Amino acid sequence: MTIEDIGQLVDPKLLIVVAACWALGYVLKQTPRVPNWSVVYLVSVFALSVVYWMFGLTAEATVQGILCGAAAVYGHQLVKQAGNASDGGSKDAL
Q: Taken in order 56, 62, 63, 68, is the CA torsion positive or negative?
């Protein structure tokens, strides 16, 4: 599955949420007091909160919120791994 495949699953109205999640994840990764393992959870909670606010507390909103958070994390990893590949690889792949 590619980022394009995930992008087709996400409601187009929520692409701004994906972008906001990506930005939030970047900021959290730069924050020394936020452990790396918690970033994905914080981004997911943010995505779910925004989608629930926009569409209400429904099963579809839950799926869309999870997809928004996942698309942001997956997109970040694609960019990071592409950078690592061009540098000859790194032990810190994730």
A: positive
Answer left, alpha or beta for residue 58, where phi above 0 means left and psi between -120 and 50 means alpha: beta
- What is the distance between the alpha carbons of residues 51 and 64, in angstroms, rounded to a whole number? 7
Spell out the residues 6+ positions from residue 67 whose beta carbon is closer than 8 angstroms to its own.
6, 9, 10
Tell me, what's the pLDDT at 82? Answer: 83
Are 10 and 70 a contacting pair, CB within 8 Å? no
Given a contact cutoff of 8 angstroms between Cβ atoms, the answer to whether 47 and 69 are in contact is yes
pTM of the model: 0.77
- Measured between alpha carbons, how far is 31 from 53 in angstroms, rounded to an integer? 26
